Amino acid sequence: MENIVAIMEKMPDPRQAWKVKHKLSDILIICLLAVTCNANSALEIYDFAVARTGLNLYGWCMVQ
C-alpha cells in the first residue's frame, strides 16, 4: 500500500504554475495533519503549520 505522501503527490495541481509557492502535496498533508489534531478552520490550520515549522526538516513546506 502506498504511503500518504506518495498518494498526495499524485494528485493533479490545477493552480497556475507561476503562482505556486508550495507543493500541493505539502499543503494537503499539513491540512490533513491539522484536521486530525482538531483544527476546525483555515486559521487553525495556519496556526498548526506555523507552530510546526520543524516539518521542514522532513522536506515538507519547502518552497519549490
TrEMBL record:
Residues 7-51 form the H repeat-associated protein N-terminal domain. This is H repeat-associated protein N-terminal domain-containing protein. The lineage of its organism: Bacteria, Bacillati, Bacillota, Negativicutes, Selenomonadales.
